[in-house]
User: Which sequence fits this backbone?
């Protein structure tokens, strides 16, 4: 039951789109920064397979430039 | 409101991200949300450096009961400021693979038999003694690692060089950073980068020379991206032989023909000199010019010898030499347009831009590795862009303690913890600190890594102890060395945590304690020493590698040199080791300071870390308030005249493709740890060969088709990857080496840089067939 947090960097001028894209996805919680071009993404999935698929989908988003992980817990 | 355990962990995850964001973007705020302090939990968090790469991220490992259960980036560690990559976050799972060695094994009648560890240590000691009695002290050897903790390497050096008296001590870091060492020594007279990761926050331009930081140094890459994000003018230029994830994120990616970086660097210097962009004042006061031998060979034959001969030259001779490297001539060699070469030169020379160059294996695993290191230093020296914040020629290390354990402790045949075996003063110092007769330390180096394995094959070495590395996957021209290790009267001891192709050839396997199961120290790429405490119990009879060495040394009669108690030996070793570096050029922090902080950079003088060496504003060892390259007798950095020379083996009609090898983000080296982490294994379950789509079309292969790759040394069949995460140019293939089911090093060539003796894993010739 993995829980991860990331800093997510949007592509240029696509922060709002990225917030929208991520907010619509299952297992994702988003905390956008109000004064920087970055947002916090929390993923909380039932199993590693779902987590892997979710990350693959997120990484394919056109609005996302890159993800930097900040926390990982897989042994809940 | 009561928090469930899951709520608590979610809150912790959000808080970690907020702390990392605040470190990267001071003053950041989040709409309608403030991270709150969390109530105390049963998880106990402790700092440790990451087990994997040379970036040296600080982690906080959460332990519940006696088990490590969670990881977060350590916000107090200036390396990663709370960030971490996918390997770091899953690192604790390497402790818990089902097939951990928890007992020793000894080969009896061809079968590995579980054996109490004390009995196995007796056997190791008696085999070493027998080999020395029969074949002399130079018949025994130890092969360690840039993943050795510092006390492991220090104990191995003291035991083998000081007590037994053989210089048969090498480490796998010879395969990954020896050219960076000889590059530093020839240019500056002292090893290791002058700058630090703060250069990443200060540079305006990053030029990466043949490295894929997005996958190999992902946290540093994130820091580069964060810098570019916060300052719109920052540029990242990717000079590369194959398109990678780093190329995609760069502002400009420039493809060059393998080995031609030598010509490109010289052409950049040509432009700087011929446009009068040289920083005249800096060069006049801080630089001298030199040339060495040329046509220096490739070391493919046994007993290859090379001795450099340096001659001082003047600026005019250097300028005349560069006339062979006009951008137009370099374009013919490299395939990089003259326009792009001029563009790079203009970036380096722009007085308003701070420039950092990064490199790793592309420049170091190179048959002219020392030369290309020298040449990139030349660019920075001609422009005076060195040792100030953001101006930094920076060789990144691959392994977590290649710097700390191999470069600083000196676990290479010619090295001592301070200086080299050839120097009488250095031998005297070592003999005194080690409490051994001076005559014990042999003044002659023996075998560098490739030659050590050749000696094992020839029978000049009969006994080899391998710790924390997997040479039966990583040696180039592997078949020869595997067969050598399996010959009749060879005795191989392997200290390991999991079964590997190397433990398969062992006569004794000693189960090792791993990372936070024992106390230790690593030293990262930016001269930062990091301490880790033991956080969880060792499984079964697993034993710390340092303690294994001490136990065998004592059995061989060296109790006096290894008197320490099990409770305190790591601290005792640190106190002894740091005597070697007790001077302003390399003083290291005390044990106490290291246990308290998330890493400390050396030289650590009067309680202060040194961020930029050789610049009197920052470095207490400088004799003036300006630059002082005190590693060289003339107190100057040396610009070297180094020509372009071709690779040892290039594509031809019979073998028309370059073979390039390397790593992927998810796997660490040979995959013996990361392939046991389910999520990482699933992400990249097996190795593959990247082929350019045009070449694939000509061959008639599609994604996933089986392809046979053959070199003059061997062949392998694996699946094709077309337009995958990397894309080689036409005429090149790339194969990651993490998968022991596909031993790509049976195809690579054991050619090396004659100065550093580091093999070139990036260039040999192969042919492809549909399988
Ligand atoms: S970048 Fe390197 S040191 Fe940092 S977490 Fe990843 S593997 Fe570990």
Assistant:
């Amino acid at each position: 039951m993995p829980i991860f947090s990331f800093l997510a960097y949007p592509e240029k001028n696509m922060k709002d789109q990225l917030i929208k894209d991520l907010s619509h996805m299952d297992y994702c919680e988003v905390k956008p920064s109000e004064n920087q071009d970055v947002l916090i993404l929390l993923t909380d999935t039932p199993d590693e397979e779902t987590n892997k698929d979710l990350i693959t989908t997120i990484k394919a988003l056109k609005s996302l430039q890159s993800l930097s992980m900040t926390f990982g817990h897989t042994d809940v | 409101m009561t928090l469930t355990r899951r709520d608590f962990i979610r809150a912790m995850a959000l808080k970690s991200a907020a702390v990392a964001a605040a470190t990267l973007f001071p003053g950041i705020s989040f709409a309608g949300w403030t991270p709150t302090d969390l109530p105390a939990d049963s998880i106990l968090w402790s700092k440790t450096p990451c087990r994997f790469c040379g970036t040296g991220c600080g982690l906080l490992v959460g332990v519940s009961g006696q088990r490590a259960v969670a990881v977060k980036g350590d916000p107090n560690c200036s390396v990663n400021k709370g960030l971490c990559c996918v390997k770091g976050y899953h690192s604790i799972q390497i402790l818990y693979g089902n097939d951990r060695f928890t007992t020793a094994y000894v080969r009896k009648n061809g079968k590995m038999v579980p054996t109490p560890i004390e009995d196995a240590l007796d056997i190791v000691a008696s085999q070493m003694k027998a080999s020395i009695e029969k074949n002399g002290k130079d018949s025994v050897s130890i092969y360690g690692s840039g993943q050795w903790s510092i006390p492991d390497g220090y104990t191995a050096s003291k035991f083998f060089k000081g007590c037994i008296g053989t210089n048969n001590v090498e480490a796998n870091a010879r395969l990954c950073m020896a050219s960076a060492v000889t590059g530093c020594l020839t240019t500056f007279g002292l090893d290791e980068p002058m700058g630090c990761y703060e250069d990443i926050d200060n540079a305006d331009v990053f030029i990466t020379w043949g490295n894929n930081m997005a996958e190999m140094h992902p946290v540093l890459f994130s820091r580069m991206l964060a810098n570019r994000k916060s300052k719109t003018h920052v540029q990242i230029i990717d000079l590369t032989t194959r398109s990678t994830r780093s190329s995609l994120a760069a502002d400009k990616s420039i493809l060059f023909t393998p080995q031609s970086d030598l010509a490109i660097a010289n052409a950049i210097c040509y432009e700087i000199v011929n446009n009068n962009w040289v920083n005249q004042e800096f060069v006049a006061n801080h630089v001298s010019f030199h040339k060495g031998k040329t046509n220096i060979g490739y070391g493919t034959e046994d007993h290859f010898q090379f001795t450099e001969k340096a001659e001082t030259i003047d600026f005019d001779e250097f300028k005349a030499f560069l006339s062979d490297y006009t951008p137009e001539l370099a374009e013919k060699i490299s395939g990089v347009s003259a326009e792009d070469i001029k563009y790079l030169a203009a970036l380096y020379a722009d007085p308003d831009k701070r420039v950092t160059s990064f490199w790793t294996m592309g420049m170091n695993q190179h048959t002219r590795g020392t030369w290309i290191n020298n040449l990139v230093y030349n660019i920075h020296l001609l422009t005076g862009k060195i040792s100030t914040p953001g101006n930094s020629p920076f060789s990144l290390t691959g392994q977590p303690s290649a710097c700390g354990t191999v470069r600083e402790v000196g676990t290479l045949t010619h090295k001592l913890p301070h200086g080299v075996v050839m120097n009488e003063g250095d031998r005297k110092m070592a003999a005194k600190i080690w409490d051994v007769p001076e005559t014990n330390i042999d003044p002659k180096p023996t075998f560098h890594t490739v030659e050590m394995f050749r000696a094992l094959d020839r029978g000049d070495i009969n006994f080899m102890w391998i710790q924390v590395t997997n040479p039966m996957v990583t040696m180039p021209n592997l078949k020869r060395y595997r067969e050598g290790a399996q010959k009749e009267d060879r005795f191989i001891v392997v200290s390991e945590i999991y079964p590997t192709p190397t433990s398969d050839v062992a006569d004794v396997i000693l189960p090792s304690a791993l990372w936070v199961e024992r106390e230790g120290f690593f030293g990262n790429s930016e001269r930062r020493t990091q301490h880790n405490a033991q956080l969880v119990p060792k499984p079964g009879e697993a034993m710390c590698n340092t303690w294994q060495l001490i136990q065998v040394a004592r059995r061989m009669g060296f109790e006096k040199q290894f008197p320490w108690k099990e409770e305190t030996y790591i601290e005792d070793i640190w106190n002894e080791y740091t005597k070697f570096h007790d001077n302003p050029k390399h003083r290291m922090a005390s044990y106490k300071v290291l246990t308290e902080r998330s890493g400390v950079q050396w030289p650590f003088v009067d309680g202060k870390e040194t961020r930029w060496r050789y610049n009197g504003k920052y470095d207490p060892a400088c004799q003036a308030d300006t630059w002082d390259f005190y590693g060289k007798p003339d107190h100057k950095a040396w610009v070297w005249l180094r020509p372009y020379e071709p690779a040892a083996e290039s594509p031809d009609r019979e073998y028309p493709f370059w073979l390039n090898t390397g790593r992927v983000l998810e796997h660490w080296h040979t995959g013996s740890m990361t392939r046991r982490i389910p999520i990482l294994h699933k992400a990249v379950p097996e190795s593959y060969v990247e082929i350019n789509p045009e070449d694939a079309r000509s061959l008639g292969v599609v994604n996933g088709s089986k392809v046979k790759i053959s070199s003059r040394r061997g062949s392998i069949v694996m699946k094709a990857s077309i337009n995958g995460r990397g894309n080689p140019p036409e005429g090149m293939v790339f194969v990651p080496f993490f998968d022991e089911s596909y031993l790509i090093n049976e195809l690579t060539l054991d050619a090396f840089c004659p100065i550093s003796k580091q093999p070139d894993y990036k260039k040999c010739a192969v042919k492809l067939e549909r399988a």
Observations:
- The helical segments of chain A are 15-23, 48-59.
- The domain at 3-73 of chain A is CATH 3.30.70.920 (Alpha-Beta Plaits).
